[in-house]
Amino acid sequence: MNALSRREEDTLLKVTKARALRECDTVVKAFAACASGRTVSVAWACKDQLKVVQECMVQFTAPEPMEAIRKEYLRLRAQNPDSPEPILK
């Protein structure tokens, strides 16, 4: 089977977002520090930091990287059909 269930797709997205946040930790922390104590002004005061966070995250969550992750997941699932869910690292 070469398709993912909705649950598998959601799980891959969650795992990928978590990995992206780990990989982009320093820029996320810089944005969080900028946003700390702000409300409306965060929109213009921290826009440069937000852009850096978005650029970092898209490296992992854009359609191309997500497709590569799906393919790897399907490959691992085909290798281990008895395993409930392959683990991606």
TrEMBL record:
Source organism superkingdom: Eukaryota
Annotated Gene Ontology cellular component terms: mitochondrial inner membrane
A Pfam family it matches: Cmc1
Protein's cellular compartments: Mitochondrion inner membrane
Keywords: Chaperone, Disulfide bond, Membrane, Mitochondrion, Mitochondrion inner membrane
Keyword Chaperone: yes
InterPro entries found in the cross-reference section: Cyt_c_biogenesis_Cmc1-like
Function summary: Required for mitochondrial cytochrome c oxidase (COX) assembly and respiration.
Family stated for the protein in its record: Belongs to the CMC family.
Entries under PANTHER family matching the protein: COX ASSEMBLY MITOCHONDRIAL PROTEIN, COX ASSEMBLY MITOCHONDRIAL PROTEIN HOMOLOG
Protein name in UniProt: COX assembly mitochondrial protein
UniProt source species: Ephemerocybe angulata
